[in-house]
Amino acid sequence: MAPIKSLKGSGVALITPFKKDGSIDFDGLTAIVNHMIKGKMDYIVILGTTGEAATLNAEERNEVIKHIIDTNKKKLPLVLGIGSNNTADVVHHLQTDNLKGINAVLSVTPYYNKPNQQGLYTHYKTIAAASPLPLILYNVPGRTGVNMTAETQLHLAHECENIIATKEASGKMEQVMEIIKSKPKNFTVISGDDNLTLPMIACGAEGVISVSANAFPRQMSDLVRSAMLHQWEKAKKIHYSIFNITNMFFEEGSPAGVKECLAHLSITKIMYACL
Questions:
Q1: For position 69, what pLDDT does the model report?
Q2: Which stretches of the chain score pLDDT less than 70?
Q3: Helix pair 26-38, 217-228: axis angle to 10 deg
Q4: Which residues contact 26 (CB under 8 A, 6 or more apart)?
């Protein structure tokens, strides 16, 4: 599968369903992937933080990736989460993992260590040089403990041709606008906060990687398409129709909330979260 040069529209940070005994629910995973395809999502993110990659061993990780690729049948582009606070480990995965069927890589900022901005720059510069696929930055300080500033992201975007986008989940609209104002032409700013997607697109972002889309793919894809076509009244209506429930998804740690919603909607059985 050929790599893609940009990611615009609606992506879903796909959950990984587990059975009560902690094993992967592959029937549930099939149902979720098909739900995304039917819901008109533009691409799927495999094993991001919402996919609970940190709870999977290497064998389980490979099984999840293969199952999604096989179920998807090349219908939607696929982005794979490969991130760590160990730069060498990320490089190792990029150079040795079987990335056939994957279109791009999403890599979260190093967590726990709280590197400074020079450390973040050096980390991404190193993995960009090692990556055979386009790379998406992922800035989510609420989970990692460190914010990658607009200056650092722009530095990387202008220097590294294969860094094609950022998933911005800082919640700082001024930072988002600074990136949009000064980014390279072919660099995409993607919302990493579901409920900030509409205002971010209004400022110039070009899509979302969404948690809520696991449960409501059609609503989220319609919201993004409407906003990008400047159909603001339609977009606002959809935005506010799922606003409260989206907030609820994050009340007690993600992805437990959206998994409960999926079970409630009878899309799958109850899908346990390894929190």
A1: 98
A2: 1-6, 268-275
A3: 30
A4: 63, 67
Spatial separation of the C-alpha atoms in residues 115 and 227, rounded to whole Å: 35
Report pTM: 0.94
Which active-site residues does the annotation give? 138, 167
In whole angstroms, what separates CA 166 from the centre of its chain? 10
Ordered by where they begin, the domains of the chain are 9-264 (3.20.20.70)
CA angle centred on 181, ends 236 and 196, rounded to 5°: 30
pLDDT value at position 152? 98
**CA-CA distance, 19 to 17, in Å (whole number)?**
7
The one-letter code for the residue type at 197 is T
Whole-number pLDDT of residue 275: 45
- Cα 52 versus chain centre, distance: 12
What pLDDT does residue 229 have?
Answer: 98
